[in-house]
Design goal:
four-stranded antiparallel beta sheet; nucleotide-binding
């Protein structure tokens, strides 16, 4: 007989949000036990005078959101109308004991915030589907890394162009 063993549920795939260019940013990594709460800082607006931000939530292991499982979205309104990249937000994801995913996004200077709850039935995948996602991610790893590098370079170029246009 074994004493003092605790079984704990883990997330089957990573949970995260969409970045500029459709990239997936994992916030809660695959196989992390829950309950859990993780916060990611440094999200910024991508247009000058942008007063709202769309937060799209995904589950998966691939580089692009389109290759992952879409879970839901919400809009944070009332952001300060500043230049591109000057408004920053942080996103918090948590999974409670019941397995419910809670996602919130908060603007860092004003505290403007919005949140959403995603019930289990809205994100449940079969074991076979999860295995397919994980196998595909492993097969496509090198290609996904190359795609990510290209998109990140394009994003940097776009932000540089915004900055140059603003300075002229």
């Amino acid at each position: 007989m074994i004493d003092n063993i605790t079984l704990q549920d883990v997330v089957p795939m990573s949970y995260g949000v969409q970045l500029m260019g459709g990239l997936f940013k994992a916030i809660i990594p695959r196989n992390h036990p829950y309950p859990v709460s993780k916060t990611q800082y440094g999200f910024t607006t991508v247009k000058d005078h942008q007063t709202a931000a769309l937060i799209k939530i995904y589950q998966g292991e691939r580089t692009l959101c389109n290759d992952n499982h879409y879970l839901g979205e919400f809009v944070v309104k009332g952001l300060p109308a500043k230049y591109c990249g000057q408004v920053t937000l942080h996103v918090t994801m948590s999974i409670d004991l019941n397995g419910i995913l809670h996602v919130s996004a908060t603007e860092d200077t004003t505290g403007v915030s919005k949140s959403i709850e995603i019930e289990n039935e809205n994100r449940e995948l079969t074991e076979s589907q999860i295995n397919d996602f994980i196998e595909k991610a492993a097969k496509m790893k090198l290609e996904d890394e190359a795609i990510a590098e290209t998109i990140e370079a394009r994003n940097k170029l776009q932000l540089f162009a915004f900055d140059m246009r603003r300075r002229v």
